């Protein structure tokens, strides 16, 4: 795939970039290695000062970088602004909390006395150079939620961003440079996917993190496993959205529209399978379908646009194949199911609600990466949980009920990295984020995320000589 900015609203190629060759990669690896050695010795106060400055600059650049993001991947301009603002907040959160999150731990003397120690502690030290392989759908947020904790912990970052967001990738490198981070602390590598293995195998690279597709995650994990290097993977999701009889159905349906169509429906944590108790199914279906059909599809730069284009022609084709397969096997589209009229340029697709989805259909098992929802009817909570877990993914989940016992059982039985009760899934710096099963492993954000790329070092003190 060429490294290029292609406007998904028009299909126009705006700029192409030459991939780094071996010499260019080596220069950046050498700079990262040198920066990692120096960064270990910096204090939290200095890192926090630099991270706060990066947040300030990002806020100053908010309108400009939002336009860049929208131009490269198609999300509505308002959503791009919100993403940039969220990144600045996360930078500040880690600037202000990293020191306490990585504070030394001191086991009680009584607990370690039988080890022969007069004292012991655990200290968190950075691993070094971390390679980040990041996707296009949240081209700022996905990077910052890695970079902010990694840099605050004393690591340095090498970013291999998706090939269709090169301007955003270069902006991020420049942002940290302008903020004053030393040379080599955060660098963008404009390379194709074929270069990842060689970079990851380089002994100067200590670990890797990847957000993306399951095949990409398998590939990076295999190489890292062969090299015995730490990885964190956040892969696909097919999140369930369960609505039970005691729920506020009107509110659940309104929220469901946003939960399915955020980021033009191109989000791993977007709700995709709507599992509704038969007692409230028809009301929910009517409200949900009405809300989906009312969304305005169009120019993502224009005020009032709810849904922009999908990021690529291939992405739209993949989504169409899933919908067409479901309809061919008996599903019905309550709304949408086609390309919108009057938008002949660009890669647009109508918000769609499918009913009558069965296990025979690909969309029952595969992730629909676009504004397409699958609607199911169930008889009780047990059936809802069984259906929710009937997926190879386990990223997050949503439950709507006022019944506390139903909430307790759902939290106990669901196979997912998150449970959001009477609300929709959203990431937040203070809360760990990640999945189980084929949605990956490890955690981003919170204290769990900053410690993923640290060495928990035991320090043991014997008796005085």
Overall form: globular
Oligomerization = single chain
| SS elements, strand count | 19
The CATH class of the largest domain is identified as Alpha Beta
The spatial strand order of the largest sheet comes to: 11-12-13-10-9-15-16
Number of domains: 2
The pLDDT mean sits at 97
Q: Pairing-aware structural class of the strands and helices?
A: alpha/beta
Low-confidence runs of at least 5 consecutive residues: none
Family: Belongs to the aldehyde dehydrogenase family.
Keywords: NADP, Oxidoreductase
InterPro entries: Ald_DH/histidinol_DH (IPR016161), Ald_DH_C (IPR016163), Ald_DH_N (IPR016162), Aldehyde_DH_dom (IPR015590), ALDH_GabD1-like (IPR044148), GABD/Sad-like (IPR047110)
Protein name: NADP-dependent succinic semialdehyde dehydrogenase
Give your account of this protein's structure:
Residues 3-459 form the Aldehyde dehydrogenase domain. This is NADP-dependent succinic semialdehyde dehydrogenase. Belongs to the aldehyde dehydrogenase family. Helix content is 42%, strand content 19%. It has 16 helices and 19 strands. It has helices at 22-39, 44-60, 62-73, 77-101, 109-112, 141-152, 166-178, 196-201, 214-227, 249-261, 278-293, 313-328, 362-365, 381-388, 404-413, 446-451, and strands at 4-7, 12-16, 119-126, 129-133, 156-160, 186-188, 205-211, 230-234, 239-243, 271-277, 332-335, 352-355, 372-378, 393-394, 398-400, 420-421, 436-437, 440-441, 454-461. A seven-stranded mixed beta sheet has the order 11-12-13-10-9-15-16, sandwiched between helices. A hairpin with a 4-residue loop joins strand 1 (4-7) and strand 2. Helix 2 (44-60) runs antiparallel to helix 4 (77-101) and helix 4 (77-101) packs parallel to helix 6. The radius of gyration is 23 Å and the shape is globular.
